[in-house]
């Protein structure tokens, strides 16, 4: 498992716990807006929690077009 895979896995675990869904339901290529029925405010809340967890800050411009866990993991991993 690569470091990027570990980052994505952590995102999936944190997301599952936060939104109270089964980890088995979430896949890296899932669109989190569709899969979890998130609105933009919930997505910002998730992003804030992930930034806190990883100790990073993601500029809005870097995550503006991101809607799946894998792409989000790549952006976070780049900042670690």
Topology record:
Elements: H1 3-19, H2 32-36, H3 40-54, H4 60-63, H5 69-79
Helix pairs in contact: 1-5
Would you kindly provide a written description of the structure presented here, covering whatever features stand out?
This protein is mostly helical and 80 residues long. The protein has one domain: ACP-like (Non-ribosomal Peptide Synthetase Peptidyl Carrier Protein, Chain A). The chain has five helices and no strands. Helix 1 crosses helix 5. The longest helix has 17 residues. The protein is globular. The model has no long low-confidence stretch (mean pLDDT 94).
- Provide the CATH superfamily: ACP-like
Strand tally: 0
Task: Give the name of the CATH architecture.
Answer: Orthogonal Bundle
Largest sheet: none
Which percent range describes the beta-strand content?
A: under 5%
What labels describe this entry?
65% helix; globular; single chain; 5 helices; Non-ribosomal Peptide Synthetase Peptidyl Carrier Protein, Chain A; 80 residues; mainly alpha
Short description:
The protein is mainly α and 80 residues long. It is built from five helices and no strands.
